[in-house]
Amino acid sequence: MTALDTRSPATAAARTDPTGRRRRRLDRTNWPLTIVLALASLTVLVPLYVTVSMAFKTSRQSADGNALSLPLPFNPASFADAWALTRFPVSFSVSLGVAALTVVATLLLSSFASYAIVRNWHRRFFRWSFVYLLAAMFLPFPVVALPQIKLTAMVGLDNPLGVGILHAMFQLSFSVLLYSAFLRSIPIELEESARIDGASTWQIFWRIILPLLAPMNATVGIFAFLASWNDFMMPSLITADPGLQTLPVVQNIFQSKFGTNYNVAFASYLMAMAPTVVVYLFAQRWVISGVTQGAVKS
Amino acid sequence: MTMQTPLSPETDTARPGPATAATRVHRRAGSLRRTEWVYYLFLVPALVLFTAFVVAPAAVGIFYSFTDYLGFGRWQFLGLANYRALVSDPAVLGSYGFTLGFAVVTVIVTQVIALALALALAKRIRFAAGLRSVFVIPMVVSGIIVAYVFNYLFSNTLPALATSVGFAPLEQSILGDPNTAWLAIVIVSAWQTIPGALLIYTAGLTSIPADVYEASALDGAGPWKQLRSIILPLLSGFVVINTVLGVKGYLGAYDVIVGLTNGGPGSATSSVAMTIFSGFTGGDYAYQMANATVFFIITVVISVLQLAVTRGRNLRLA
Question: What is the pTM of this model?
Answer without folding.
Answer: 0.85
